[in-house]
User: What shape does this take?
Amino acid sequence: MTRLWLLALCLLTAVSRADGPLLQARVQLQPGDSALVGQTVTLQLDVLTDTWFANAPLLPVLTLAGALVQPPGDQAQHLTLQQNGKALFGMRYRYLITPRQVGTLAIPALTISALPGQATATLSASTAPVALTVNLPAGAVSGQMPLVASDVSLSQTVIYSSKALKVGDSLTRTLTLRAEGVPAMALAAPAWGAVPGLVPYPGAPRLNRLDDGRGDAHGGQRTDQVAYRVARGGHYQLPAVNLMWWDLHGQPHYASVPAVSFEASDDAAYRTVFSLPRRWPWGWLALLVVLLGAGWSVYLQRRRLIAPLARWRAGWYASAASARYRAAVQLRQSPVQLTALYLWQQRHRHCLSLDAPDALAHRYGAHADGQLRPLRRLLHHTRAPHDGPPTPALRPLNPWPDKEPS
Assistant: This one.
């Protein structure tokens, strides 16, 4: 019996779904079909079905001449409605439209594609076209984009590079504009105004969305920043910034920040990074040219200078002064060396008692240091008669006689 009931229920479901699942799309303007220039209205798009969505609906791109359009975000509101006694399930999306000119803004029909549950192919549904009547707020200038919001706030901060400003220092002015009911991309840049003597360096604006923490946006924020460099000393005043805006009923309001006054002193020692001195240092330039020329001449004559240097070095090593210096070093070593001392004696031609027993006693004896002190004093007080190479000790072989034998 249970099987028969299940079979009957399946047959009834098949009959009820013989025509396939339902897909509907409808739009509505919020808060209404009339708005002011600069006011942001919401085009509410509902996509409905009587089953479920196998994937996210594919939304069209909406472009309107004379208006700024912000497409829906990734998040959507889930809906459950009753229509003619039938339960409908769907998703709600929001397009934000900010008109820029007076007139009638025609919003064409939107075609949405989706794949509802139990559908064998992707379905499409279209909305009905709607129109938005746009008027200019009272007191607004035609051709300019007025700011229409439920609430607006404007604030500023000023940061100085030093407590006592002088030429070359800087200050940074930051303006922050918050508007309820207006997307950040619809907020215009403030009018800074030029100040003679100050060089402005504007930065890129920062746009942020104001939301309730659950993904629903309720406004926008724009932050603008300008850095001013002081070009000359004097008294300065950054002008006040006054912003006129209108509420949703068309009533004008003002948001403003006060002017910024400050003093900057002259600094004669200041120069910009890329500044050049007005007078060239000709004396230093001439000295630099002379040094470069001398260095280049030495480089070209390096081969001629190396040979005399080598000869002088060889003469020094062959001189008695060189032997005396090395002998003094060896007499302070432990153990004591006497080779340089003998060499100095030969080159200096000074008669010293350096026989073998004395030499051994000086080098290896128990009181060697005391016995070497006279030699050290002798080396210290003796100067070589000349620093040239030593004279050969042996006479030349086969000398030429002065006279022929008779």
Summary: The radius of gyration is 51 Å. The chain has four domains: 20-135, 147-264, 277-308, 318-381. Helices lie at 2-16, 282-300, 302-317, 320-331, 339-348, 356-364, 368-381.
